[in-house]
Design a protein that fits this description.
InterPro entries: ADH_Fe/GldA (IPR001670), ADH_Fe_C (IPR056798), Alcohol_dehydrogenase_Fe (IPR039697), PhpC (IPR035873). GO terms for molecular function: alcohol dehydrogenase (NAD+) activity; metal ion binding. This is Alcohol dehydrogenase class IV. Keywords: Oxidoreductase. With about 375 residues, the chain is an alpha/beta fold. It folds into 2 domains: about 170 residues, Rossmann fold, CATH 3.40.50; about 190 residues, Dehydroquinate synthase-like, alpha domain, CATH 1.20.1090. Helix content is about 50%, strand content about 10%. Strands 1-8-5-4-2-3 form a 6-stranded parallel sheet, sandwiched between helices. Strands 6-7 form a two-stranded antiparallel ribbon. A hairpin with a 6-residue loop joins β6 and β7. The structure holds zinc ion. Zinc ion binds next to α8 and α12.
């Protein structure tokens, strides 16, 4: 089997004090800093940011809305008064995705642009004509997104009609700084949803059409870690060791799907998030085991996948996922306010190129409808 495996991002595992020192070493850059006040406080970065702002020409974005749109990208471009040569994004998946959107569209700085032209550039991939290779440091504050090692960022159309993305090799962060310490304060609901996102990345990458021996090993390692440590971290959220293991699980899953992409569960998740506000991790995990039933016969080394879960069949996996969600969020569409009457609209919006067609089994509209009805 011939295949490529890309590793374009330098990975650094740090603690908070090491990260402060790392930031203080950065000098004489024109920086776009994406960092909310809440994150600044959580990291106790205030003094260090003062130094950072003094040593660099720094434009800062203080507010990151969940699921960034073309409007949020325009807001970033409006805020910066000079083309940046370094981006530091500290936050959840949305902060890192917003940074990717801003880098992709940074050719607009100093030019005429509007929300419409930004949207057009994303939809028609015009930004690809301008290869903006910018040093980019991504610092995730959750354990799940994987965005710190991927070359694409999710951008949502502002009127909630479409999930878009920016994608290019030069959009992958040059460095990912993983700081398990900062995930200790993550609320339980976010811990669960981001953990389930990572589990979906690992599992979908495993059965993806583009999976390869390296990605599958990473997927299995991720699944083993998440299976062991998600229940522990939910029970004892303050335990550093459990948080650290979840960060590794998320990172391994990220490295796997950065090379293979995700599949049907992610494709089905987009309308659930866009139209019904279902958090990304739940929106992916809700169909994971039903999609697995469809995919089962086409999964390479399927028994190895079950072994990574430490289970002998799909129903056991489903029960395990439901058990983790118990008391936090029932994992059914109706529990998120998605009614039977909404299903048809979701079905019609689930087919995302690059995701659905990466599923090992070609799912028809009828199959997706059947999957959604089973989890209603
Ligand atoms: Zn995801």
């Amino acid at each position: 089997m011939n295949f490529n495996f890309d590793l374009s991002t330098k990975i650094r595992i740090e603690n908070v004090s090491g990260f402060r020192e790392y930031l203080e070493m950065i000098k004489n850059h024109k920086v776009l800093l994406i960092l909310s006040k809440t994150m600044e406080e959580r990291f106790q970065l205030s003094d260090c940011i003062k130094i950072f702002e003094k040593e660099n020409k720094c434009n800062r974005i203080l507010k990151v809305s969940p699921n960034p749109t073309e409007k949020d990208i325009k807001n970033v471009l409006d805020t910066v008064d000079v083309k940046f040569d370094l981006v530091v994004a500290i936050g959840g998946g949305s902060a890192i995705d917003l940074a990717k959107g801003a880098i992709a569209l940074s050719y607009c700085i100093g030019e005429n642009y509007s929300e419409e032209s930004i949207l057009e550039s994303i939809v028609n991939k015009e930004y690809l004509k301008y290869k903006n290779v910018i040093e980019f440091v991504a610092v995730p504050t959750t354990a799940g997104t994987g965005s710190e090692v991927t070359k694409w960022g999710t951008i949502w159309q502002g009127d909630h009609t479409k999930k878009l993305s920016v994608e290019a090799d030069w959009l992958a962060p040059t460095s990912a700084v993983i700081i398990p310490e900062v995930t200790v304060k993550m609320p339980i609901r976010l811990t669960l949803s981001s953990g389930l996102d990572a589990l979906s990345h690992a599992t979908e990458s495993y059965w993806s059409k583009k999976s390869n021996p390296i990605s599958r090993e990473l997927s299995k390692s991720a699944i083993r870690l998440i299976k062991e440590y998600l229940p522990k971290v939910i029970k004892e959220p303050d335990q550093y060791e459990y948080r650290e293991k979840m960060c590794y699980g998320s990172l391994f899953a990220g490295l796997a799907f950065a090379n293979t992409r995700t599949t049907a569960c992610h494709s089905i998740s987009y309308p659930l998030t866009m139209k019904h506000g279902v958090e990304h991790g739940f929106a992916c995990a809700v169909t994971l085991t039903e999609v697995m039933k469809y995919n089962q016969k086409e999964i390479i080394e399927y028994d190895e996948l079950l072994k990574a879960f430490g289970m002998s069949n799909i129903d056991e996996i489903k029960n395990w996922i439901d058990m983790q969600c118990s008391g936090i969020q029932e994992l059914r569409l109706s529990a998120f306010g998605v009614d039977k009457k909404d299903i048809e609209d979701v079905v019609q919006n689930t087919f995302t190129t690059g995701r659905m067609d990466n599923n090992p089994v070609d799912l028809s509209i009828e199959d997706v409808r059947d999957i959604l009805i089973k989890v209603k």
